[in-house]
Amino acid sequence: MSANQYSAQPGRLTVNPDAQAMIDVARKEGIETVWDRLAAQQPQCGYCALGLSCRNCAMGPCRIDPFGEGPQKGVCGADADVIVARNLGRTIAAGSSSHSDHGRDILEVFAAMARGETSGYQVTDEDKLRRVAVELGVATEDRSTDEVASDLADVLLDDYGSRRESLSFLHRVPEVRKAKWAELGITPRGIDRENVEMMHRTHMGVDNDYVNLLLHGLRTSLSDGWGGSMIATELSDIMFGTPKPVMSQVNLGVLSRDQVNIAMHGHNPLLSDVIVDAAQDPELLELAKSYGATGINVVGLCCTGNEILMRKGVPIAGNHLMQELVLITGALEAMVVDYQCIMPSVVDVAKCYHTKVISTSDKAKFPGATHVSFDPSRGAEVAREIVRMAVEAYPDRNQERVRIPVEPVRMMGGFSVEAILGALGGTPKPLVDAIVAGTIRGAVAVVGCNNPKLPQDLEHIELTRQLIENDILVLVTGCAAVANGKAGQMLPESAALAGPGLRSVCEALGIPPVLHMGSCVDNSRVIALAAALAGYLDVDIDQLPLAGAAPEWYSEKAVAIGAYVVASGITTVLGVQPPIFGSPHVVQLLADGLDGVVGAKFAVEPDPDKAALLIRRHIEAKREALGLPFVPVDEIREAVPQVTVGGAATAEG
C-alpha cells in the first residue's frame, strides 16, 4: 500500500463500523492513530522487510543488497542466509520469551498462593489441580490443596531451568512426534535454556549454518508452546476456573454512558481477575453512585479481555487496533494495562480526555501513565485501589464528548479443551466420527493479531466465513476471536452460516461453528487438542486434517506460535509476509523443506479467498492420505445421522 492508501477513508482501514466511526472522530479532532503513524513511515526500509539488515554487533549495521549490485556479505562475512536466519531466530526467541515469562509470572503467584502469601487468589478448579498433578507425578492422595499445589509448582519451576532433558507436558505429545523431534535434535529441554541458547547462537561468530539456526528456532518455539504457554494456560485454569461456554458481548458498544468504564488491556489475568471482583465491592459502587454513575463497568481489550471473557463473561471492547479508538469514545475512566501489545501511544491519546492510563507491571512502564505496582501479596487491595482511581475520574468526564457509536454484538466464548470434550460426552470419538463421515472436513485454528497494513479484521472474518461454509470447524484465539465475535460468527445461531455437515453438528451441540479457545497464550489448548485427537487415533499430528492460519499477525509472539504449531505437525498459512524473503534458501526450507522432516510447513497468502482454497486443498490431501474420500456437499446430509454426540454445551450469563 502507498502512504495515501494508509490515510484513506476509514472504510478502507477497517471493516468495523465502531472503528470507522472513531477513526473519523480522531481525524476531526487531530488525534494521531496507528494508521497515521504507519502512513508517516512510508516507505519502510526494504532491507529490513526482506530480513537483510543486521545490527548484532558494533562492526555494523550491515545490509545485503538483494539485487546483487552491492554488498553480499556483512563485515563479519555473514551472507544473506545467515543474516535472515539470525534475525528470525531472535524474533522467535523474543516471542517465546514473552509468552513464557507470562507463564512464569502465573507460576510464581501460583506458588506464593500455595504458601498462603497472596491476597485475592485461590484454587478455583481443584479437580483440574489434582488431575494435572497426577499427570506430572505429584502425589495427591490424602494431601491438602495447598500441599498439592506447592509440589506442582516445584515441578513446573524446574521446566524453566536446565536440569532436564525434556519438558513436563511432553508426555501429551504422540510418541511418533517425540521421536521426530529427538531425531532432529529439537526436543525442548528447559524454557529459559532454549531462549538463552538461541541468543547465544545468533551472536556474531557462533552458529553460521542457517539450517542449524532455524532448527533451534523450532526447538525454542516448542519450549514456549509445550512449556511456558501451556503452563500459563493450565495454571490460570486452576486459579481462575477452567473456561466453559458463556455468553458475552463485543465491540465499543459494551461501554456504558452512565457507568464508570474500566478497560483491562494486555495479556496477564492475574490483576484483571481481581479487578473484576473489586468492581463489585459495595463501598466502591456506592462511591460511584455518589459521583452520579449508576455502576462500574469492566470491559476487556486484547488478550486480557479474552481471559476474563472466557472465565467470567466480561464483555470485550475490541482487539489490538482498537486500543486507541476506545479512548477516543471519551467514555473511559481508566485503561489498566499489564504487558504485551500495548501501544505507547495510548498515553498520548488519553491526554486528550479525562482517562487515566494505569500501568501495573514493573517490567512494563509507560512514561506519562500512573504506575501502581502489582503485588500479589496484596492483590485484592491493589485491585480496589485501582478501581477507586477510576471511580474518582468519573466526575471529570465530559459527557458532551462521549461517543459510543454502535450497539454491542452477542458472542459465545469459553471453549477450553475440557469444555469441547465435555460437549462431546467426554471423548473425542464423536468429533472423529464426524470427520470420518465427512460431516466435518477438518479443523483450522485461525489465530493472531491485527496489522494496520491490512484492513482490520477483514482477513479473519473472510477466511473464517469460507472455511465454515465448507464444513471446516474453526478454532480461534486472541485478536482473531474478537474479530469473529464482532462479525457475529460466534453464536449458536451462526451455525446457519456453516455448510450442512458442520451446521448439523453445531445445532446438535448448541455451539457456534467458530469456537473461542482463549487468549494468544491459549494456543497451547489448540496443540493439546490436536495431540488428544492424534493419541485417540494412534497417529501423528501431521496426519490429521488440520491447519493453522495467522491472517493479520504482527508480533514476535505470533512468529513463535507459528513455529511451534508447524513443529508440532500443523501446516500454517500467514497473511502478512515475514521478513525472510531476502534468503531464497530460508524461504525454501520454511515453505517446503520442513514438510519432509516435521510433516508441516509455512505458506504466505494475504488474499483470504486464495488462503481458504489453499487450506481446503491441504485438508482434502490429509483426508485422502487417511483413506477418507471426498464427500460432495449434497451427500453430506445423508451422513449426518451417522454422527452422534454425547451432550450439549451450556451457555451461561
Explain the overall architecture.
By secondary structure, this protein is α/β, with parallel strands linked by helices. The chain folds into four domains: 3-63, no CATH class; 83-240, Substrate Binding Domain Of Dnak, Chain:A, Domain 2 (Up-down Bundle), CATH 1.20.1270.30; 252-401, Rossmann fold (3-Layer(aba) Sandwich); 415-642, Rossmann fold (3-Layer(aba) Sandwich), CATH 3.40.50.2030. The chain contains 28 helices and 16 strands. The strands form four sheets. A six-stranded parallel beta sheet has the order 6-5-4-7-8-9. Strand 7 (334-337), helix 16 and strand 8 form a beta-alpha-beta unit. Helix 6 (80-114) crosses helix 24 (556-567). The two termini are 43 Å apart.
Layout: helices, strands, pairs:
Blueprint: H1 3-6, H2 10-13, H3 17-29, H4 34-40, H5 46-50, E1 53-54, E2 62-63, H6 80-114, H7 126-135, H8 145-157, H9 175-184, H10 191-201, H11 210-240, E3 246-250, E4 260-266, H12 269-278, H13 282-290, E5 296-301, H14 302-312, E6 316-318, H15 323-328, E7 334-337, H16 345-350, E8 356-359, E9 370-371, H17 379-393, E10 409-413, H18 417-423, H19 429-437, E11 442-446, H20 458-469, E12 472-476, H21 478-486, H22 500-509, E13 514-516, H23 523-537, E14 546-550, H24 556-567, E15 572-574, H25 584-593, H26 595-598, E16 602-604, H27 608-625, H28 633-639
Parallel strand pairs: 4-5, 4-7, 5-6, 7-8, 8-9, 11-12, 11-14, 12-13, 14-15, 15-16
Antiparallel strand pairs: 1-2, 3-10
